[in-house]
Amino acid sequence: MQVLRSVLYMPGSNERALEKARTLPADAVIFDLEDAVSPSVKDQARQNVVNAIRQGGYSNRVVVRINGLDTPWWKDDITALANLAFSGVLLPKANSVEDVQTFASMIDELGFPAELPIWLMAETAQCIANAEAIFGAHSRVKVVVMGTSDLGKELRLPPDVDRLGLQYALGRCVNAARLNGLDIIDGVFGLLNDDEGFAAECEQGLRLGFDGKSLIHPKQIDEANACFAPSPQQLSDSADIVEAWRQAEQEGSGIVVVKGRMIEALHVQQALRVLAKADFIQRREH
Fold first, then answer.
1. Distance CA 211, CA 190 (A)
2. What is the residue range of 270's domain?
3. Residues 66 and 89 in one domain
4. pLDDT per residue as tens digits for the range 68-127
5. pLDDT digits 0-9 by tens, 229-276
6. Which of 227, 259, 274 is at the close of a domain?
7. Is residue 242 located within the same domain as residue 172?
8. Number of separate domains in the chain
């Protein structure tokens, strides 16, 4: 199982941030070579990331966001990462099936392990319009990350705490991700001093079906981890469902009712996933 409640962006140009990432409780950290790095320091940022990965200490939590395929830096980015041990590579502005396949072919040519996953940014109207095909373009693709800031800009959306203008894109991408068996991470919340707003957007993302939240500051980690983890009530209900189902199987009964709710196999599968997720989190944190 993979748990991605909190996914923190860290600028590749900031060596102190890369160092600090080793001690932070985020489920994954994205070492960013793209938006957070100005053109004048792209080469230095790339070397910083390579050095940090070589030094290790991140507990298999590092994903590297390279520059887009329409830039002069992406081939140097991915080539520099060859022969390093990290957890995934994030492709920004994945606008077509061809983009994903071109990138995957380059990874194969450079000899990356077959199990190295590709993460995709969904941040353009073109990507949203073809999400199902793009997310399923290659077997290496495992995770989608919403780029709500870039998408909102392209869609000409005004600031909106309810993200009304993004609802179609968010829902379609969740559906496309599940269609292809992928995890999907909600976009960032940029107001660092609005803790209440951040908590509300995490809750909205959870209700929309996202697995976690992408973050821009370490102060957001704890709230995201709490929101996207199973609640005590969920754990209790899930344990009751699994126990009642197993007892009914032993007794040869085809009817299972828990707290007035008729239970089917799909509810048991959901309950088992909740319990497995909680167990994974507990083992990671202890």
1. 19
2. 232-285
3. yes
4. 999 999 999 999 999 999 999 999 999 999 999 999 999 999 999 999 999 999 999 999
5. 999 999 998 988 988 888 888 887 777 888 888 888 899 899 999 989
6. 227
7. no
8. 2
